[in-house]
């Protein structure tokens, strides 16, 4: 058997498989199980398996679980779950909680599983990335998962994008949802409000006005375009044009608004863009804290 260590240079961006294969021995479970089992499937009693404490999904649809349980009763487990060993006769889920929960509903006493070695941070990364890539998470669950990867796994936004296969703008759009009031976040979570509606509301500075537009959008079932128009009208009334400044022609104004929206989306904050008929103007990027400033500087690649 070769003693050559696996090459970790290209691990970034290879997803869950890379994390599983490259897990170094660092914690209690690894001392008990020093050699990583990379092939073979083991039948493990359900009673010996703990749920994953790092599981980002907070809600599992009961009807969907019942349907999966019925499928398991008929055809069994098609794809094994993945676990790590904590102690003799004690395991913890890495991925496959829906299959695990549905198997209990189906009346199974054992379940096929791969056994892997992973420390707590790797468990968190695996659980988050596996869910983001394979489960139909709502937008808020994705946003919270991205935030946890940044905060708890010490990833930068560019690294996070590589991990989950998304560009930085997409990641920013999800993270910006976390700035919305809890009521609106709950509506996004419960799919009463779409991602498009939410992105429009983020551009309103006042929380009270955000909530007012949100209430109107839900009650009247407004389209994303109509919500965007409401937001634009409110922002225009709050920041009226100076009478001394000549008005831009409609086409030029439309182009400038589009550029401003793209800048706001890219930097994850409201951006002020002003220009005159001679194409002279300024761009203002506000920040709320030293951390927020560092985030913007990182996007600008200044630090």
Automatic annotation (TrEMBL):
InterPro entries: Chromosome_partition/occlusion, HTH_ParB/Spo0J, ParB/RepB/Spo0J, ParB/Sulfiredoxin_sf, ParB_dimer_C, ParB_N. CDD domains: SPO0J_N. Residues 42-132 form the ParB-like N-terminal domain. Keywords: Chromosome partition, DNA-binding. It comes from the Bacteria. It holds the Pfam family HTH_ParB. Belongs to the ParB family. This is ParB/RepB/Spo0J family partition protein.
């Amino acid at each position: 058997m070769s003693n050559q260590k696996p090459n970790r240079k290209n691990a970034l961006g290879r997803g869950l498989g890379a994390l599983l294969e490259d897990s170094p021995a660092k914690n209690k479970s690894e001392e008990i199980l020093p050699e990583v089992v990379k092939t073979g499937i083991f039948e493990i009693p359900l009673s010996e398996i703990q749920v994953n404490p790092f599981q980002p999904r907070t809600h599992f649809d009961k009807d969907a679980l019942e349907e999966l349980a019925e499928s398991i009763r008929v055809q069994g487990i098609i794809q094994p779950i993945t676990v790590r060993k904590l102690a003799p006769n004690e395991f913890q889920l890495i991925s496959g909680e829906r299959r695990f929960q549905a198997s209990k509903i189906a009346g199974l006493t054992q379940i096929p599983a791969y056994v892997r070695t992973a420390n707590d941070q790797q468990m968190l990364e695996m659980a988050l990335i596996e869910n983001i890539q394979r489960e139909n998470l709502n937008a808020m669950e994705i946003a919270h998962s991205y935030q946890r990867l940044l905060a708890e796994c010490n990833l930068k936004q560019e690294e996070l994008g590589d991990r989950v296969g998304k560009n930085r703008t997409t990641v920013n759009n999800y993270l910006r949802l976390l700035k919305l009031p809890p009521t609106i976040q709950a509506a996004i979570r419960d799919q009463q409000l779409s991602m498009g509606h939410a992105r429009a509301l983020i551009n309103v500075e006042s929380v009270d006005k955000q909530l007012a537009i949100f209430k109107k959008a839900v009650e009247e079932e407004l389209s994303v375009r109509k919500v965007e128009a409401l937001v634009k009208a409110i922002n225009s009334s709050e920041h009226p044009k100076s009478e001394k400044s000549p008005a831009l022609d409609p086409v030029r104004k439309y182009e400038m608004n589009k550029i401003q929206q793209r800048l706001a989306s890219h930097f994850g904050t409201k951006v002020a863009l002003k220009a005159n008929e001679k194409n002279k103007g300024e761009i203002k990027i506000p920040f709320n804290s030293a951390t927020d400033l560092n985030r913007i500087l990182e996007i600008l690649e200044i630090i």
